[in-house]
Amino acid sequence: MILLTPDLRERLLTNGHRSGLDHVPVVKFFNPLGIGTWLATELDADGDTLFGLADLGDPELGSFSLAEMTSLRLPFGMGIERDILFDGLFPLSVYAEAARQAGSIVCSERLLRAAAAALREER
Questions:
Q1: What residues form DSSP beta bridges with 29?
Q2: Is 14 part of a structural domain of the chain?
Q3: Interval 30-62: pLDDT, tens
Q4: Fewer beta carbons within 10 angstroms: which end of the chain, N or C?
Q5: 119 pLDDT band (50/70/90 cuts)?
Q6: Which of 107, 103, 95 is nearest to 39 (CA)?
Q7: How many Å apart are CA 22 and CA 42, to the nearest integer?
Q8: How many whole angstroms separate alpha carbon 44 and alpha carbon 50?
Q9: Could you give the CA distance from residue 94 to residue 68 in angstroms, rounded to a whole number?
Q10: pLDDT at 120 over 80
């Protein structure tokens, strides 16, 4: 699977030129066989260094390498994948705080979706 389409790459690079802002995540990567979830908001001009929220057992903000994720080989010939259905709804700080409270990005996303649905129903 191609981890970054040209459109996603462009959006991440645009955010990277405006670093320091609380961007909405552009893309979500995950390990289909175990632990590992990443929400990326920015891509550096080097085309490799992503910034966002990484969860390898303890969610934290920071930088991670696209090349390392692409080269990772998992059992059964699998690799890190992109969540093609992901649509960032909140700034990264909201995802980070929810993940901190829930203990993981995956659990926090369920809570965030439930909260967003409840707000839509109230309107």
A1: 38, 82
A2: yes
A3: 999 999 999 999 999 999 999 999 999 999 999
A4: C
A5: low
A6: 95
A7: 10
A8: 6
A9: 26
A10: no
- At 123, the pLDDT band (50, 70, 90 cuts) reads low
3-state secondary structure at position 81: strand
Residue 110 lies in a domain: yes
- Beta-sheet strands, E only, within the chain: 27-30, 37-43, 49-55, 60-65, 81-82
Taking a C-beta distance cutoff of 8 angstroms, is the pair 37, 26 a contact?
A: no
Neighbours of 70 (CB within 10 A): 15
Question: Are the beta carbons of 94 and 112 closer than 8 angstroms?
Answer: yes
Sign of torsion, CA 102 107 108 111? negative
Q: Is residue 76 situated within a structural domain?
A: yes
In this structure, are residues 28 and 38 in contact, taking their beta carbons and an 8 Å threshold?
yes
Residue 79 within any structural domain of the chain: yes
Q: pLDDT per residue over 16-28, tens digit each?
A: 999 889 999 999 9
Quote the pTM value.
0.90
